[in-house]
Design brief:
Length: about 350
């Protein structure tokens, strides 16, 4: 796969810190669930451009949750929302989607899954493993991005010029999040460990802290890091755009009971994601339009998705995806992010895709 271009630009950065935390931290530990504030409770929204059909009241509702308050997903799932593919495919089997936004990200999505108030969650593999380890009987039945990049922003005053220079430095990153995993693996690949740096645990205050020299570096989504660089907060040190193995993996999950009782709905969701994947490959220019939002300018999106083959949108849970989940699970065990081991074979379900 070609690497996505990382020379990203925003016209102006008014990135709401809470939105960044929700969008990019989306994968916390169970302890973080208690931190979800009252104003971060789920809000039902419609993220599709397609109008509801006249007989929509006759359809059963399938709730689909994603990080952020507007209910919009990212990558292939966002394309499926924008083009109404979820609506079309679900209606074929008697359902309609209801999109629910969770500003509390991974922990809040897991809480909703555990409380039976959510049917399908769209988030990272790390919170999915957390849920399974905590006793929530879920299955990963699709992926919708296998190359979600993260990066390190170093302050100008830090003297950091290479990954090895991070040793002994203060780094802002949410403990137990996917960016935290990226940082850990990045350090290991460069002869260091997470204990060689001082972690400042935050998924939202990194930009403020690096601007006020409270930390030497921060780790978050690659797009945000590039935007912060343009604002003069520091320099991009390195990005996982250059190393897909340590980029983020985004997956669709549902409880096993849901997959048993409403398997046709899960198959419809996979068909919608597969249509989004095929659409992205066939019309990359319009796909970039669809991925543009108030948070990401079209110019930034076009540069981010410079690999217009969009192979990373393939929803199939391939062996390579399972291997990535295994790696994340081992990382979580080694770093005591989960107390109970899980069987990854019991976490994934490849048969839903096979039935599409």
């Amino acid at each position: 796969m070609k690497k996505r271009n990382s020379l990203l630009r925003f016209g102006s950065l008014v990135l709401t810190v809470s939105l960044l935390g929700a969008a990019f931290a989306g994968c916390g530990t169970k302890d973080q669930e208690a931190q979800v504030e009252e104003n971060e409770k789920p809000v039902a929204v419609s993220a599709s451009e397609e109008p509801a059909s006249d007989d929509s009241d006759e359809l059963q509702t399938i709730t689909i949750g994603a990080s952020g308050t507007d209910g919009s997903a990212s990558d292939a799932a966002r394309i499926a929302q924008q083009l109404g593919y979820f609506e079309e495919e679900l209606e074929e089997v008697g359902y309609k989607p209801e999109y629910i936004g969770f500003a509390g990200a991974g922990p809040a999505l897991n809480e909703a899954l555990g409380g039976d108030s959510l049917d399908i969650a769209l988030y990272g593999d790390l919170p999915a493993i957390t849920a399974k380890s905590n006793g929530i009987d879920i299955k990963v039945f699709a992926s919708y991005c296998t190359n979600y990049p993260f990066a390190v922003l170093a302050s100008e005053q830090s003297g950091i010029a290479s990954v090895t220079d991070l040793k002994g430095k203060k780094i802002a990153v949410g403990f137990g999040t996917v960016p935290y995993e990226y940082l850990s693996k990045l350090l290991e690949k460069n002869g260091l460990s997470i204990t060689d740096v001082e972690i400042v645990n935050t998924s939202t205050d990194g930009p403020t802290m690096i601007a006020s020299n409270q930390v030497d570096a921060l780790v978050t989504a690659d797009t945000a890091v590039r935007a912060y660089e343009l604002q003069g907060l520091g320099k991009t040190l390195i990005s996982s755009n250059d190393d897909e193995e340590i980029s983020g993996l985004l997956v669709a999950v549902a409880k096993s009971q849901f997959l048993e009782e409403k398997r046709d709905a899960a198959v419809a969701v996979v068909r919608a994601l597969d249509r989004a994947y095929e659409y992205a490959k066939a019309d990359p220019d319009d796909t970039i339009d669809k991925l543009t939002s108030d948070l990401y300018s079209r110019e930034l999106v076009a540069l981010t998705y410079s690999d217009t083959g969009f192979e990373y949108f393939n929803p199939e849970v391939k062996d390579s995806v399972i291997k990535r989940i295994e790696s994340t699970k081992q990382f979580m065990l080694d770093n005591k992010l989960i107390a109970k081991d899980i069987d990854v074979a019991d976490l994934v379900d490849t048969t839903i895709y096979a039935d599409k």
